Structure formats: structure tokens, C-alpha cells
Amino acid sequence: MIVQSKQESDGTVVLTVVVESMDRSNATEFREVAAQAIGASTGPVVVDCTRLEFLDSSGLGALLHAQKLLPEERRPIRLIGVGSKVLTLLELMQVHRIFALEPRR
Fold first, then answer.
1. Cα–Cα dist 13/42, whole Å
2. One pLDDT digit (tens) per residue for the chain, 105 residues
3. Buried b / exposed e across 27-40, counting CB within 10 Å, b at 16+?
4. What gap in Å lies between CA 30 and CA 33, rounded to an integer?
5. Which domain holds residue 68?
6. Which of 21, 29, 37, 101 could form a disulfide with 54 if both were Cys (CB 3.0 to 4.6 A apart)?
7. Is the pTM of this model over 0.85?
8. Domain count across the chain
9. Dist. CA 58–CA 38, nearest whole Å
């Protein structure tokens, strides 16, 4: 299991990444879980990246796919607990502005 999904009482969907690496070996699972959770809710989406240390192009694609599934009024996805390596990748790929980012402390 790569991600755990829960819905808060206010309708917010929280997707918690429970692995250190989101890559081509597991990005499809993230896409599937995210799509199901997003489709079953009407609130904003938060992805907890606290444990995530590595993200390749497939993992980034999975995050972008989840963002595209959201109607405009529910955007952007909030990425919380973003580590420095993942943050650097998002900035290098120039997609850091697409998400609401909260770096790890």
C-alpha cells in the first residue's frame, strides 16, 4: 500500500503517502486511490508527503493527474510535509506553483 485515504468531517480528503518513494512501480496505485477518493468527495484535497523522500516523473505525473481530476473550485491540491528533495524536484520541473505547498519543518 502506497497511500491511505480518509475523509475529514468537513469533506476534506487526506491522502497520506506511506512510502518513501513514489515512482513508476507504485504511482498507478496512487492514481487509483486518489481518483476514487476525489470522486467520492466534494471538499479540498490534501496530500501528506511527510514520509516521501523521492519522487520520479511517474510519481509527479500521479500528483498532476490528481490535480486535473479536481474541478477548478476545489483546486489546488495542498501538499503538506514536503521534504527538501521533493520540493527541489517540484521547483526544477516548474510545477511548484500548481500546488499549495507546505514544506516539512
1. 9
2. 999 999 999 999 999 999 999 999 999 999 999 999 999 999 999 999 999 999 999 999 999 999 999 999 989 999 999 999 999 999 999 999 999 999 998
3. beebbebbeebbee
4. 5
5. 3-103
6. 21
7. yes
8. 1
9. 19
